[in-house]
Amino acid sequence: MNLYSHYLCIMDIEDKFGYIATLLGDKARAIMLWSLLDGKAYTATELAICANISKQSASNHLAKLLEAQLLAVEKQGRHRYYRLANPRVAQVIESMASLIPDSQIKSINTKPKSQNIVYARTCYDHLAGELGVKITSALIKNNILTQNDNKYIVTTYGLKWFSALNINIAELKLKKRSFAHKCLDWTERRHHLAGSLGAALLEYMICNDWIRKKNNTREVLITSLGIKELNDKLELFRK
Q1: Which distant-in-sequence residues (6+ apart) come within 8 Å of 157 by Cβ?
Q2: Above 50 in pLDDT, residue 108?
Q3: Are residues 112 and 184 in the same domain?
Q4: Is the separation of the CB atoms in 184 and 191 below 8 Å?
Q5: Measured between alpha carbons, how far is 227 from 123 in angstroms, rounded to an integer?
Q6: Tens digit of each residue's pLDDT (9 = 90 or more) over 175-232
Q7: Which of 85, 111, 145 is the last residue of a domain?
Q8: Looking at the 3D structure of the chain, how many domains does it have?
């Protein structure tokens, strides 16, 4: 590749990146994408309400996000349901929140209405917030996971630990997505477990009533059973 061709290639990448940045920079689109971080699919009307815009305006925004392959859509009867295209989109959106200055994060953390979601919430399909970070730290402390660059590695003991929860590590690694990567928690400023392993662990905790999702929010509640099990398996709440 000669210098001119290299220049054209860089310009092409910059143009494409600039277009994506412009899409994410619009307030209405940003709110809709943020709302979709709960992993659910919503209609244009529902997303319009979230962004406080008209349905027609929401449809125009959604068309652009679909064209950029940031969203996927599924038809069901007369309705069209929109969701994030893949976990990578969710990871980028959540990571962008980590650019919020520390002083503003501290202000958010102290607001009564924000404290529950700061403590425990879903981040697309895995657990985030203070609880998500604590569980990840406990998995490392108990030699269930080790760290390597931007990912987590399941130890030999970890294979047995997850197997006891009926979480099949070999099957998860075959999925066409990240297995166990570090996701920077925007409120804690530390990493929590994401990827197919993080999703499987969240699903297990929900199915076994360790935690419960709250309606119409990303907030989750830990149950008394969850406290007991996490104490028994990870010594999470013991001093």
Answers
A1: 143, 144
A2: yes
A3: yes
A4: yes
A5: 20
A6: 988 999 999 898 888 999 999 999 999 999 999 999 999 887 889 999 999 999 999 9
A7: 85
A8: 2
Identify the burial level of 174 via C-beta atoms within 10 angstroms of its C-beta, where 0-12 means exposed, 13-18 middle and 19 or more buried: exposed
Q: Are residues 106 and 224 in the same domain?
A: yes
The pair of three-digit structure tokens given for residue 112, joined into one six-digit string? 């009564």
> Quick one: pLDDT at residue 176?
85
Rg (CA), the chain: 20
148 and 174 assigned to the same domain: yes
pLDDT band at 140 (very low <50, low <70, confident <90, very high): very high
Could you tell me which residues are beta bridge partners of residue 191?
Answer: 184
Domain boundary among 28, 50, 85: 85
Question: Do 154 and 224 reside in the same domain of the chain?
Answer: yes
Same domain flag for 127 and 43: no
- Looking at residue 176, its amino acid is K
Give the C-alpha separation, 32 to 126, whole Å.
19
Spatial distance between the Cα atoms of 232 and 239, rounded to a whole number of angstroms: 13
Alpha helices in 83-194 (DSSP H): 87-96, 102-110, 112-119, 129-141, 156-164, 169-173
Which residues span the domain enclosing 40? 3-85
